[in-house]
Structures are given as C-alpha cells and as structure tokens.
C-alpha cells in the first residue's frame, strides 16, 4: 500500500502515533504488511457514529440553554445546592465532541495517506464510554425534561436552512477519503455498498429543503411587529428576582408588563415570592433556621420584612451577568427586601407598566381568602384595572364580578365552545405552533409565550407573529431591531440550488482527482 503523492513518511508516522498509540514509522508498517481489516473498518464506522451522536447532543445542549435556569432551580429545590449546571454541561459536551472529532480527523487523514486504521484499545474503550454518556444524557432528557424535545423541533425552524448547508458541506468533504478507500479496496461488494449509501445520503440532503419550513422565510414587508417584552420576575439577570429593583430594571429594558408571583402571609399581606420555601432567594436559614423549611405563607409580614432578599443574588450569581454589575447596582441589590404586592402595584402605576401575576399556592386550603385579600389590595392601590393581568384560574368568576376592569389571561388554548371570548393566553413557548400563533393573531387574541431568553427563539416567535414574550433577558431582546435572519423564499431557493450544484461538482472532482 503506497503512500499517495504528497504524504510524507513523517506525516504518516505523526498521524499513526495518536490514533494507534504506537510510534511506528510508515516504512515499518509496510514491512509488517499491516492492512485495514474489516474489523478496523467497523471501528471506524463506530467512531463516525459516535461523532455524529455527540454532535447531535451538542446541538441539544445549545438549544436547552434557553431553559437551563429552570433546571438550576430544580436541582436547588431537590439538593439545596446552587450551581450553574449549564457550565458543567457545556464543558463536558465540549470535551466529548473534541475527542471524537480529533479521532475522526486523524482517521480520515490516515486513509488519505494510505495508512492502516489500527485504533488502539484505549480509544475503543473511551469511545464506548462516550457513547454511553451521550445515551445516558438523552435518556435523562427524555425522562425528566421531555418538553425539550418540542424545543428542539422549534429550533429546527431557526437552524434548518443552515444545518442543511452544513450537512451538505460535511458530506461533500467526505468524498475525498471515500474515494481514496474505494480506489484502494479490492472488495467489489463493499465498493458498491459504500457508493450506494453515500449517493442515497447526498440525494436526501440535496432534497432536504423540500421539507424545511421556517416562519422567517418571508418577505421583509410581511414581518409582523416586534413582540412586546414581559419581564419574568422583573429583570432577573440584572437584579434579584421579584424585588422592586428588578421591577425598575425591567422598566429600563422597555418591558410593558412586570410578571411576578404573589403569596399571602400568615397575617394576610400579599407579597412577591415564587418558591413555596424562602431558602433560595432569602437568608431565612440564618434568621429563622428552625423555620426555614416552612411554606412562605407560614410567615407573618413582620418576619418577612426581616429577611434579606438580595445578597443571595450576589453570592450565588444565578446568571453570568451578575459579574458585570456596577458597584452601585451591587450595593442596591444587597439592600433588597421582599416587597409587598401593594408596593409593586405602586411602582408599576408610577412606571406606567402592567403587572401580571400568579397567586400561589393554588392547593392551599385558604385559597379563596387569598383571592379576596389580593383583590382588595388591587382595588385600594388606585392602579388602573386594565394594567392588571390576572392569571390564576381559581375563583375567576368572583374576580370578574368584584373587579370587572381586570384583564383575564388564560393559561390554556381556546376551547371550541367558549361562553366568553378569550382575549389573552399565556403559554409555554413550545405549546403553540407557528400556524396556531398566526391564527390567534388573525382572531385578535393576544398570545404571550414564556420563557424566551435566546435571540434565535425570539426571532422564530417574532416571525410567527406572537404578541409578547416573557423573558429573563430583557436587556438582550431589547437591543434586537430585527430577527437574526430573514430570507425571501426566492433567495432561499437560489441558495439551495447553488449549494447543491457546487457540492455535486466538488464530489465529481474529488473522485476524478483521487483516481
């Protein structure tokens, strides 16, 4: 097996060393008569599959970053340990994809240089471990976080055209090592099989755009207005969540609605708090250690006012943006206390923004009293009732009677036989398709989707025509003047034809050149 022209013995030796873990020169390989066996080919195929598998997991890891703060909160509630697990995920994924990528590149270069693909047993074990880790990751995702599969499908609307171009490019580059192997191997059956598989894959990729749909494939003049921003617990990347500082930071981000969560204290004071326990966002373990595990509603307002609701934000850094806060913002964050609903309503009234909230916990035995107390505070605050967006489903009819001006937002889709028209819906972003969003928009139904943090997701929903989005990253989405990409269908069709034609010519050239 002679080296092809231009592949020196030193280069071949340097490639063999990390792949086979043996420092044997190319000449010695020839003298020993080593060849790439079917067993070696099967390991190369396994390597290629592991690389693709890990690449798919990398894609999923990037997609689920939009929702990873929810995962961090879930781990904290279970283990009382705060860590930004997204960093662990990205580092581990980067290590796996880098390892399999390097091995694959080495194998392809060895094939081009005419050297045997003798994968060392250490690499074989590590590849099996890599595959098992990725399988475990996908399994865990499917069991504990199944809704992320819907997120992945939505992401294809943002990345589909570019994934198509990347896949065509990657398979086109494989033409060189494939041609080299086909011209060297003596098995006619293997040659025919590989060529048929390669041709089938390329034909499928060439025709893939027929199945690619995206709301962002449209003319510029068809683009709907930019969705309004709803601050998820305020601006939690810039200030401690559900505090007055967070509300004011959200106002600075031009949000139109402050979204929060309301609970009622033991002495009947509605206050802002998301978790049923106070441990994540206050220093309750230091102030009331024996009562730290109690429900938030078990504390009276005097006790709640003693708690620090801001220092945790600086200590745990729930978002990377905390590191870039100014000294003044850090000082202000450290002074935050749990605000009452009355204080939040007054701040919203002064800032001329709406407030939308859930009333928790829904399964509380005194929930009806919670509703009445909360309504009383709203009516006494003097805030225009059209600025109040009511989310809780419990005792909604009583709310309509006592405060008819309040806007009602439903956490479900419309029903076929609605007694009253549904004008506002609030749903997870993966629960509505682009077609449903367009239909609701045509029927003048306001659609708010949550929680949208990544620009790619905001772009897809913008193109779909969503009315507003709830976000943690209002400071990022505020700066977006247009979707990340917008392509007229005629332009995309031209890109599709050019990419396919160039790829086809390069493949023909590769086979002619290698011959």
Describe this structure in words.
The chain is built from 21 helices and nine strands. With 515 residues, it is α/β, with parallel strands linked by helices. The protein folds into three domains: 7-145, no CATH class; 148-214 and 487-514; 228-478, Phosphatidylinositol (PI) phosphodiesterase (TIM Barrel, Alpha-Beta Barrel). Helix 16 (367-381) links the parallel strand 4 and strand 5 (388-390). Helix 3 packs parallel to helix 6 (121-144) and helix 5 packs parallel to helix 8. The protein is elongated. The model is unreliable at 1-6 (pLDDT under 50). Belongs to the glycerophosphoryl diester phosphodiesterase family. This is GDPD2 inositolphosphodiesterase. Its main location: membrane.
């Amino acid at each position: 097996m002679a080296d092809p022209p231009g592949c020196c013995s030193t280069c071949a030796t340097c490639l063999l060393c990390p792949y086979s873990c043996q420092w044997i020169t190319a000449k010695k390989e020839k003298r020993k008569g080593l060849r790439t066996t079917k067993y070696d080919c099967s390991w190369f195929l396994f390597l290629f599959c592991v690389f693709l598998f890990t690449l798919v997991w990398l894609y999923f890891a990037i997609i689920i970053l939009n929702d990873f703060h929810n995962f961090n909160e879930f781990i904290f509630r279970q283990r009382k340990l705060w860590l930004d697990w997204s960093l662990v995920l990205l580092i581990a994924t980067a290590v796996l994809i880098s390892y399999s990528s390097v091995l694959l590149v080495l194998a392809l270069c060895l094939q081009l240089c005419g050297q045997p693909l003798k994968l060392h047993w250490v690499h074989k074990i590590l590849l099996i471990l890599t595959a098992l880790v990725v399988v475990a990751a996908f399994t865990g995702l499917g069991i504990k976080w199944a809704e992320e599969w819907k997120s992945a499908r939505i992401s294809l609307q943002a990345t589909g055209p570019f994934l198509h171009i990347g896949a065509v490019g990657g398979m086109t580059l494989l033409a060189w090592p494939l041609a080299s192997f086909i011209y060297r191997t003596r098995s006619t059956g293997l040659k025919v099989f590989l060529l048929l598989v390669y041709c089938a894959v390329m034909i499928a990729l060439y025709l893939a755009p027929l199945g690619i749909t995206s709301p962002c494939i449209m003319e510029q003049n068809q683009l709907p207005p930019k969705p309004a921003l709803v601050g998820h617990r305020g601006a939690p990347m810039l200030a401690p969540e559900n505090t007055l500082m967070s509300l004011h930071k959200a106002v600075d981000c031009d949000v139109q609605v402050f979204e929060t969560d309301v609970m009622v204290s033991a002495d009947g004071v509605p206050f802002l708090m998301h978790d049923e326990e106070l441990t994540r966002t206050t220093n309750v373990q230091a102030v009331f250690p024996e009562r730290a595990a109690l429900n938030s509603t078990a504390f009276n307002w005097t006790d709640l006012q003693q708690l620090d609701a801001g220092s945790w934000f600086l200590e745990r850094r729930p978002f990377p943006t905390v590191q870039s806060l100014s000294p003044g913002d850090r000082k202000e964050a450290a002074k935050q206390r749990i605000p009452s609903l009355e204080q939040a309503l007054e701040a919203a009234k002064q800032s001329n923004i709406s407030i939308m909230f859930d009333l928790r916990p829904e399964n509380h035995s005194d929930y009806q009293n919670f509703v009445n107390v909360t309504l009383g505070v709203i009516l006494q605050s003097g805030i225009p009732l059209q600025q109040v967006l009511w989310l809780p489903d419990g005792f909604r009819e009583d709310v309509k009677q006592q405060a008819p001006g309040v806007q009602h937002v439903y956490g479900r889709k419309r029903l076929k036989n609605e007694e009253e028209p549904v004008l506002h819906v609030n749903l997870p972003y993966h629960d509505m398709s682009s077609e449903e969003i367009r239909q609701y928009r045509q029927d003048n139904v306001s659609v708010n989707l949550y929680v949208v943090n990544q620009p790619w997701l905001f772009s897809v929903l913008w193109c779909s025509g969503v009315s507003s989005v709830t976000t943690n990253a209002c400071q990022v989405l505020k700066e977006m003047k247009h979707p990340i990409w917008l392509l007229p269908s005629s332009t995309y069709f031209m890109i599709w034809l050019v990419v396919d034609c160039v790829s086809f010519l390069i493949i023909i050239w590769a086979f002619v050149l290698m011959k």
